[in-house]
Amino acid sequence: MEKPVPKHRLVDSPLTVAALYHFALLDNLDQKRKELLDICDKNEILGTFLLAEEGINGTVAGEPEAIHLVIDYICSWTEVEKIDVKFSESSSRNFRRMKVKIKKEIVTMGKDGVDRLNVSGEYIEPHDWNEFISQDGVMLIDSRNNYEILMGKFKDAVNPNTDSFSDFPSWADNLSNSEDKPEKIAMYCTGGIRCEKATAYMKQVGFEKVYHLKGGILKYLEEIPETESMWEGECFVFDDRVSLTHGLSEGEYILCYGCQQPVSADGCLSPLYEEGVSCPQCYGKLSESQTANSRERQKQIQLAYDRGEKHMGRKPQLKNLSKNLP
Fold first, then answer.
1. What would the pLDDT profile of 169-181 be if each residue is shown by its tens digit?
2. Which CATH number covers residue 198?
3. pLDDT tens per residue, range 291-313
4. Using an 8 Å Cβ cutoff, are 95 and 61 in contact?
5. What are φ and ψ of residue 7, in 5° steps?
């Protein structure tokens, strides 16, 4: 019998961004990659999907009906029983091309034998999260990287000070051998996928009471009103929107072309910031040729947008700061 394909609620927006992941033992990866890329190309969808024997992970943007078709195709795979998708809106496509890649892992921890399918933490729903993390004896851990945490975090969360997710196991090993080893752990990340592996690893190194925020920060920001929120700041996302806030509205951060680090609205008002060239974090660290090339590139981007033409570079972003100007 053919497996029924579920329907999904899509954001009522000209462009929809869908972030999803699903752990399952996938086979025929080459065929899945080819068919997935084909349906995305035919429907003018841009973004990235990662396929591995452990599952699928990705974020894509396109017209709502096109996104609907892609998700229905993924849900038609026999290995996929259920998939949670986080939808948000965007005023642009956020990506420059469509990529479907086959990888060893759909989120790179770099540790063999992490059994996410059979061992992981317990979910905490967004509406229960505030009460849960406010309990005595709960260590709240942010499993993201330093540059993401600098942009925003939950109040009193512990920062493992990692530059990449593959650094997390070493930090977890040290915590498990610490005299201050916590009895109960609550973890969170952007969309939930890193916590799927991080909580599994924590249990494998000896922690028994391990929990994580279902749907990640994005689901929390979607469901929890700002007046009730324990989230502080903005949430970094891996597309041209750079950051999201409550209600999954686009935030005020942008990416510096010179160093690819997020820049706040205040940072953009600094005399050390030059759009498309440098920011306070990398000012003076770039070579003269890099600076000259970046300035010429930014000039061509601006000219293209002034003429109403498309350009592969990011759209000029200073207009996002208008509400912060005197």
1. 999 999 999 888 9
2. 3.40.250.10
3. 898 888 888 888 877 777 655 55
4. yes
5. -95, 155
The answer on 138 and 214 residing in a single domain is yes
Domain range holding 288?
252-324
Neighbour count for residue 208 (Cβ, 10 Å): 9
**Is residue 182 assigned to a domain?**
yes
Confidence (pLDDT) at 90: 85
228 and 275 fall within a common domain: no
Residue 259 pLDDT level (bands cut at 50, 70, 90): confident
The stretch 255-284 carries a mean pLDDT of: 89
Task: List the structure tokens of 276.
Answer: 């498309």
Beta strands in the chain (DSSP E): 16-23, 46-52, 55-62, 85-89, 98-102, 122-124, 138-142, 152-154, 184-188, 209-213, 231-233, 235-236, 243-244, 254-255, 262-263
Instruction: With beta carbons less than 8 A apart as the criterion, state whether 188 and 195 touch.
Output: yes
d(CA 63, CA 70): 11
Tokens representing 91? 């005023």
Q: Count CA atoms closer than 13 A to 91's CA, side-chain side.
A: 10
The number of folded domains in the chain is: 3
Give the residue numbers annotated as catalytic, written as ranges.
189
State the Cα–Cα distance between residues 317 and 127, nearest whole angstrom. 34
